[in-house]
Design brief:
alpha/beta, Rossmann fold, seven-stranded mixed β-sheet, about 15% strand
């Protein structure tokens, strides 16, 4: 009898080990309703550090770090299928840990993942905040883009990133990140995270994001969704045109709340920290 019990326990513990996330790690802090924070491409959870003390007072916070980004080993993300793989493990994490309708807050690619989770598993999330992300990234390049149209360009962008020398890669990342935040401190964090990321995972994820058109998926979302859209007068697109692009892209998502954050580039949490904190507070209070 003891041998049978021991065998059953070993099977249970083995199953628990197998069920642990492999495509991301999780750090949990605070107490209360569950909130999951997901950073963007080549970012780490510390992008949310400014609001963490506020959230921990009232919520149990799950900070996600995706494997291959910002110094975390690539793990299975080295084999690709990153968006769907992380999405599926997030859904499993929510279910296996008994999280009750957690709020998902995701920046950039993390926002896309939040939308994909809510679309794939309508009962998994309680609400979603997508921070400065479209359901189809490549609309920013061409408002008439389709997934098929973008595939060769995504493959080319991936190949170019992988072919760059370390010196050229570092230069390109600094240039790119300079267009994503207005703060010198944020720029240095973003560049450091990028350079610490696995180049293969970064390039593959970039290509996957470029071709993923989630406009066909988001109509399945049944929970409240808030989209924070950054806008700054220095952007090369007239404001009305830019806002129209976003409202059209999200037109298939019934009841979506698009809130424009003025005076900000892509990293809203750095460029407009108080406006971001206020938006998160309102989002969680609704």
């Amino acid at each position: 009898m003891k041998a049978l019990i021991a065998l059953m326990l070993s099977v249970l513990f083995a199953g628990a080990a197998l069920a642990a996330p492999t495509r991301f790690t999780v750090t949990v802090s605070g107490e209360g309703p569950d909130v999951i924070l997901i950073p963007g491409l080549a970012s780490a959870p510390h992008v949310y550090d400014a609001i963490l003390p506020q959230l921990e007072k009232t919520h149990r916070v799950h900070r996600i770090q995706i494997a291959g980004f910002a110094g975390l080993p690539a793990g299975p993300n080295a084999q690709g299928d990153i968006l769907d793989g992380v999405r599926d493990e997030l859904i499993a994490y929510i279910g296996e840990n008994g999280l009750q309708k957690p709020a998902l807050i995701g920046h950039s690619m993390g926002g896309l993942l939040s939308l994909l989770v809510a679309a794939e598993a309508p009962d998994a999330a309680g609400r979603v905040m997508a921070i400065d992300v479209l359901p189809f990234f490549s609309l920013l390049i061409n408002p008439m883009a389709t997934s098929e149209m973008v595939k060769p360009f995504a493959a080319q962008a991936k190949a170019q990133m992988l072919a760059q020398s370390d010196e050229v890669f570092a230069q390109r990342q600094r240039q790119a990140m300079g267009n994503l935040t207005k703060t010198p401190e944020g720029l240095e964090i973003a560049v450091a995270d990028s350079l610490a990321s696995d180049r293969g995972v970064m390039a593959e994820t970039m290509a996957e994001v470029m071709v993923r058109d989630a406009r066909t998926e988001i109509p399945a979302i049944t929970v409240p969704v808030t989209v924070l859209q950054a806008y700054d007068p220095q952007m090369p697109v007239p404001k009305e045109m830019y806002l129209s692009l976003w409202s059209t892209a999200y037109s298939g998502l019934k009841g979506v709340n698009i809130k424009v954050i003025e005076g900000s580039y892509h990293f809203i949490m750095w460029d407009q920290p108080q406006a971001f904190a206020d938006a998160v507070t309102a989002f969680l209070a609704d």
